[in-house]
């Protein structure tokens, strides 16, 4: 009988996050080397959900010690490890290696420093609302759906909860704070799902700044009341 979502998350939810971090990345961890994917997972999780690391370590180790048989996988009773490029006989040892690295990181307090995202997973984990915005409103179908880029931005602001729009504005400012070259901003936009070029005459970073400005244009005002210095 297939697992219910709550059972899946309780037993495999954080393991799934670790494995998803390897999408498009080699699973080349060893006893004395962390892969780019695991480094990205550790960096993001340390800075956003540090308590989840212990759960990841436990779930990885338990799965490596008690891997499901093919029948139970076929019945949907266990989490199937996605293809990592490793042969089947190497999966258990790889999972134990990941658990060991995470345990060492927790016990030694080894936190990867802030950095530009290194993987597709890390871009989306760090900038989730930007990925929703760019992938949803600026896919290759955008020219058929909207008159121009401004119309697409206007549609997003009109149809999206104000709190999510505020989150997007914050993510765009954080993205700009990476201080990348324009070619790297173009790559970042592509990683986050944008499939059309920014409108002329804007560079990628210039357009991001323009969108962030539009999102906050009079929408997030605070009422400070009457100052005690007012007449």
Summarize the structure.
By secondary structure, this protein is an all-alpha fold. Helices cover 59% and strands 0% of the residues.
Task: List low-confidence stretches.
Answer: none
Overall average residue pLDDT:
89
Order of helices and strands: HHHHHHHHHHHH
Query: Helix amount, in percent?
Result: 55-70%
Strand tally is 0
Overall shape: it is elongated
How would you classify the quaternary structure?
single chain
Count of the separate structural domains:
2
How far do the termini sit from each other?
73 Å
Query: Which secondary-structure class do the elements indicate?
Result: mainly alpha
Tally of separate helices = 12
**In angstroms, what is the radius of gyration?**
22 Å
> Biggest sheet, open or closed, and with what strands and sense?
none
Q: Bin the strand percentage.
A: under 5%
Description:
- The chain is an all-alpha fold and 231 residues long.
- The protein contains twelve helices and no strands.
- α2 packs parallel to α6 (120-126) and α10 (162-177) runs antiparallel to α12.
- The longest helix is centred in the middle third of the chain and has 18 residues, at 91-108.
- It has two domains: 5-108, no CATH class; 127-215, no CATH class.
- It has helices spanning 5-20, 36-48, 52-65, 70-74, 91-108, 120-126, 128-137, 142-145, 149-159, 162-177, 182-191, 204-215.
Topology diagram in text:
Blueprint lengths: L4 H16 L15 H13 L3 H14 L4 H5 L16 H18 L11 H7 L1 H10 L4 H4 L3 H11 L2 H16 L4 H10 L12 H12 L16
């Amino acid at each position: 009988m297939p697992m219910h979502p709550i059972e899946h998350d309780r037993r495999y939810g954080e393991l799934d996050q670790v494995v998803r971090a390897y999408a498009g990345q080699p699973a080349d961890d060893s006893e004395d080397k962390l892969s780019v994917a695991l480094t990205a997972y550790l960096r993001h999780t340390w800075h956003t959900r540090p308590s989840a690391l212990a759960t990841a370590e436990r779930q990885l180790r338990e799965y490596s010690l008690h891997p499901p048989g093919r029948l139970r996988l076929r019945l949907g009773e266990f989490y199937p490890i996605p293809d990592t490029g490793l042969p089947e006989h190497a999966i258990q040892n790889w999972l134990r290696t990941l658990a060991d690295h995470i345990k060492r990181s927790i016990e030694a307090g080894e936190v990867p420093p802030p950095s530009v995202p290194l993987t597709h997973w890390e871009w989306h984990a760090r900038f989730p609302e930007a990925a929703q915005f760019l992938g949803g409103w600026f896919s290759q179908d955008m020219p058929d759906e909207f008159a121009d880029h401004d119309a697409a931005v206007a549609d997003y602001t009109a149809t999206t909860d104000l709190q999510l729009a505020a989150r997007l504005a914050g993510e765009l400012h954080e993205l700009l704070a990476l201080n990348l070259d324009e070619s790297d901003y173009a790559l970042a936009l592509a990683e986050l799902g944008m499939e059309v070029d920014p409108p002329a005459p804007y560079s990628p970073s210039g357009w991001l700044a323009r969108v962030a400005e539009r999102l906050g244009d009079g929408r997030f005002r605070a009422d400070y009341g009457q100052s005690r210095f007012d007449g």
